[in-house]
Specification:
By secondary structure, this protein is of the alpha+beta class. It contains 16 helices and 22 strands. 32% of the residues lie in helices and 28% in strands. Helix 6 runs antiparallel to helix 10, helix 8 packs across helix 10 and helix 15 crosses helix 16.
């Protein structure tokens, strides 16, 4: 399945022009001093969620329901004009269909699980945004697979140019081949990337007049013609060469030589040249096959972005204060909002059994119980701590409970409570990424430690669907608890990523990666990093 391995930003607020990719693991922890860029980076998750959920003219929606970055001019780093979002992905590219009608038919879709063949390719993707003089956003997408780089420059629905370049794999990175396209149009935006890029062709209407018409196969035809011209030099086959090229599937470069010999089994001239150029011919053919399959690559990449970022659930740093009474609303709500203001309504949406399960889960993991009690047209949230005889209104229990409860309930909803909540439209297949700013606010160190143990346990148990937690924190107790979870065998050290954020002498954010060893001890950790 296509997925995003890591991502980063350039020229966004305090981030400079250096590419800094941060791995995406099951537990992702961001630490550093105040105003060092960790909040900016964490908020790119909800930023990209509101972007994939919205129909915008450019890839990024800077101001939306979850976060407010202003606009491109206020978000860009001082002295820069262009912001970049960088991704490293594993993309599954379908390789065994060529007929559009067959691919779109219900019959094909019904059998796709039995017939689909895919190639997984490691892909680097960079999306750049620049403000033009006419106030429109100029977008730039760079997609790199092996030594093939495809650059698409576009604004709204118009593609200025698309340039595909093959480079040598040595340190000099010399240009070997290039294929360029112009006069292209975006007919489907996708979530972040354009997914349909068409050209223009001459056609005739019903009256026989010459007209311009969109051509969805412009890129494929251009790559096919270039591949035909290249292979003509090395084959003796001429009449059926074009048909034979249709049979070449996109496979790994190391397997492409064998595939080509199957296409030209009796062509002695081709076999001789392939023996003389065992690397050049497969690598060049791979270059043109990547271009021929570029629409599928765009679709797979955009699908992986949507799969990750549409599943983001974000909780901001200062959540809503507790109220003594909440007005009753007969609403069914399946997600805690980023301020936690709708928490009572979310709990009220649960049936009696689920409320009981939630309270028990909180008691087992955090040492207190939760109750929602109706009182006429209002209801109140109540807390009972360990060794306490009765429940008390949350407004009488200290500010910390109002801050941590939205976080705790969100974790339960997206993991333990996910299966019973299928009637709300959620399935186990939905990937979830819970993004939390400073969950430890106003919490006693002992409860911070218990929170660290709890998230390690939750992540280890959420194996039936993708679940991740992204946390910005200053809590050494929380980090120590996750290390203890590794020592207890609750979670693997490879499931955890720790990013250390610091400002350099140029006032730009630098990220250093840390983590745990297999015994739960911190590695590459600066002495006193979280100390006074």
């Amino acid at each position: 399945m296509s997925h995003v391995n890591s991502f980063g930003v350039r020229n966004l607020r305090s981030f400079g022009a250096e590419t800094q990719l941060v791995p995406i693991k099951k537990i992702n922890i961001f630490v550093g001093r105040n105003s060092c860029g960790k909040s900016t980076f964490l908020r790119t998750y909800p930023l990209l969620r509101q972007s994939v959920e919205s129909n915008t003219r450019s890839p990024i929606l800077w101001y939306g329901s979850y976060v407010d970055f202003g606009d491109l001019t206020t978000a860009v780093h001082d002295g820069s004009t262009k912001i970049y979002f960088d991704f490293n992905c594993e993309l599954d590219i379908e390789t065994n269909y060529s007929d559009k009608y067959l691919y779109e038919s219900q019959f094909f879709n019904a059998l796709t699980s039995l017939t689909k063949e895919t190639l997984q390719v490691n892909t680097d993707i960079s999306i750049g945004l620049d403000l033009r003089t006419d106030k429109q956003v100029q977008s730039n997408s760079v997609i790199t697979i092996n030594n093939t780089e495809i650059v698409v420059n576009y604004c709204a629905g118009q593609v200025q140019d698309m340039v595909c370049t093959q480079y040598s794999q040595d340190s000099e990175k010399k240009q070997l081949n290039q294929l360029a396209f112009s006069n292209l149009y975006i007919t489907s935006k996708g979530s972040i990337l354009p997914t349909n890029i068409y050209g223009i062709k001459d056609s005739t209407d019903a009256q026989g007049n010459m007209v311009k018409q969109l051509d969805e196969e412009t890129i494929k035809k251009g790559a096919q013609q270039a591949l035909l011209s290249y292979l003509k030099k090395y084959t003796s086959t001429t009449k059926s060469l074009s048909q034979k090229l249709e049979q070449i599937k996109l496979v790994e470069i190391r397997k492409l030589g064998r595939e080509l010999t199957k296409i030209f089994p009796a062509d002695k001239k081709f076999h001789m040249h392939l023996k003389e150029l065992p690397n050049e011919i497969p690598e060049t053919v791979f270059f043109y096959l990547i271009i021929r399959n570029f629409p599928r690559i765009l679709t797979a990449a955009d699908k992986s972005f949507k799969g990750l970022f549409s599943g983001v659930r974000y909780l901001g740093p200062v959540r809503a204060s507790a109220e003594r009474f909440y007005r009753h609303q007969d609403l069914e709500i399946g997600e805690v909002d980023h301020k936690g203001e709708n928490l009572p309504m979310v709990i009220n949406s649960l049936d009696a059994r689920m409320k009981k399960n939630l309270s028990k889960w909180i008691s087992d993991n955090f040492g207190f119980e939760l109750e929602l009690e109706a009182s006429g047209l209002h209801y109140e949230l109540k807390i009972k701590e360990e060794h306490d005889a009765k429940f008390h209104n949350i407004s009488d229990m200290g500010f910390g409970y109002s801050q941590i409860l939205p976080v705790i309930v969100s974790i339960w909803l997206e993991t333990v409570g996910a299966v019973p909540r299928r009637h709300l439209g959620f399935t186990d297949a939905n990937s979830r990424t819970l993004v939390i700013e400073q969950p430890e606010l106003h919490l006693h160190p002992a409860l911070q430690y218990r929170f660290g143990l709890a998230i390690a346990k939750v992540v280890s148990l959420a194996t039936n669907f993708g679940f991740r937690i992204v946390i910005e924190t200053h809590s050494s107790q929380m980090i120590e608890a996750i290390g203890e979870s590794i020592r207890r065998g609750v979670i693997e050290d490879s499931d955890i990523s720790i990013a250390l954020f610091e400002k350099n002498k140029n006032d730009c954010t630098e990220i250093t990666m840390s983590g745990f060893d297999d015994e739960g001890y911190l590695m590459n950790w600066p002495a006193g990093f979280l100390s006074a």
